[in-house]
Amino acid sequence: MDIVTLSHGSGGINSAHFIQNIFMPFFQDMMPFANEDSGIFRANDNNEKYVTSTDSYTINPIFFEGGDIGKLCVCGSANDVAMMGGKPTYLNIAFIIEEGFKIQELKKIIESIACECKKLDLQILAADTKVLPTFNKDLEKKNIFINTTCIGMLEKVNISAASIQHEDCIILSGKIGNHGARIFLEQNNIALESAIKSDCASLYPMLSKLFASEIPLHALRDATRGGLASVLNEWAISSKVCIEVNEEYINIDEEVRGVCEILGLEAYDLANEGVCVLALPQEYATQAITILQEHELGKYAKIIGKAIQKDIINNLKLAHSSMQDSETLEKMYLQRVVLQTKYGSKRFLEYPQGELLPRIC
């Protein structure tokens, strides 16, 4: 690996290797939450714990159907805090603006940020602005990049990508692929008569009642870069389980399927900005879905599969002829994601490869 490529920021297997091989040799000892999207810290001597997350936003186009970079930068960091069981409370924000950027567009972005902060009752603690000399020859397309750091009080404990257990149910909160499909259409100026819009939204309002309940959440993740496929593969590896999901239970709009055919991709790989995946004990699954469906963002919530850690071969109903075959198959399927297709066959749902769509968040 001699140079950084776009695929290193895709959220797929290349990103995972990039972080593991380049950053972690230096940061490993100082990153106790390296496999999570947020970290937890204690601010004083009492038992209060806080969650924090930081993220940078480079999306192109800046304005898109369903949102803009302003809404996205608040929702994105707030969602990362929520995925660790936190209530988003404070925000730090930094703007990097290319010289020549239109003031009117900047005002629209700031208005979106303020609007989303008010929805979540977020307070902005600190902010910074930098202006770069112009580097884009297109006078009409100047860039803005935004970094946000969100902090919130921890409300739900013991959520981790490494905590998934045998027979945990995997729940998907909504339809997948809409954000990635919308951004693809706009990046490529494809003028389809399409109702697809980004699902960009803050997820804490949907999750707050779940956090207040006695339902144990083992893992929780928003399916952003790399989509559902990345989340499930990360979980399978971190928790050392096999995850089986059923294609029929995964909700995808037909228009998104159509865009995927154009792209030659699967909706499982596309980014989402208002969808999360949950892993929890099966005896709580029905109750959790009922709570999620009370909120508009969770009305399509559904069990899509389960985690398997023991007797994988029998659980997956795989044929084998000997104990040797069984042991080999067990190793082959552990830490993998299996997709049961609508035709009844099974295949691995792989980590996304390469750069799928640049600058989608």
Automatic annotation (TrEMBL):
GO terms for biological process: protein maturation. Transmembrane segments: none annotated. InterPro entries: HypE, PurM-like_C_dom, PurM-like_C_sf, PurM-like_N, PurM-like_N_sf. CDD domains: HypE (cd02197). Residues 36-153 form the PurM-like N-terminal domain. Residues 167-311 form the PurM-like C-terminal domain. PANTHER family: CARBAMOYL DEHYDRATASE HYPE (PTHR30303:SF0), HYDROGENASE ISOENZYMES FORMATION PROTEIN HYPE (PTHR30303). Belongs to the HypE family. NCBIfam families: hypE (TIGR02124). This is Hydrogenase expression/formation protein HypE.
